[in-house]
Amino acid sequence: EWSSRAFDTRSSPLLIDNKLIIQTLFEGVYCFSKSKGREMWRNSAIYGATSFCSTGSDIIGCGSNGWIASINPEDGEMNWIQDIQTPINSTPVTDGYSVFVSDMEGKIRAFNIDTGTLKWDYDLEMPIISSPAIWNGRLYVGCSDSKIYCFSQAK
Fold this sequence. Notes:
With 155 residues, the chain is an all-beta fold. It contains no helices and 15 strands. The strands form four sheets. Strands 1-2-3-4 form a four-stranded antiparallel beta sheet, with no helix packed on it. Strands 5-6-7-8 form a four-stranded antiparallel beta sheet, with no helix packed on it. It is globular and about 45 Å long. It starts with 13 loop residues before the first strand and ends with a strand.
């Protein structure tokens, strides 16, 4: 039905209401109308080609350039941004209170969902490419050391 230009798109789209939000490798985050493909906003300050998760009111994105950010899906403005200075190649997850990411340095990190403040991290000492998953108060992630780890979300 439609196509729109979003340069070097490598992330999975996030669909919220009538919005399709996608991240590009070098040009930032785009928001398109799902029904017409019209560009609604673009945030070129953040990029890196991983996917997003939704908190219900905001979206959380990570980048292969080492950032994690909370973005308002209505206008693309950032609520907060953190630079962890190591690539993140996975999709973040949230439990409604914290945002969890895994990174290529081998760390699992938990950030406050409202402020972006680091709550805790745990070093697995091997690159983590897989995205974490949450179920029943536990955080699960696979690591390149051929193991799967389970953590208490509160840690």
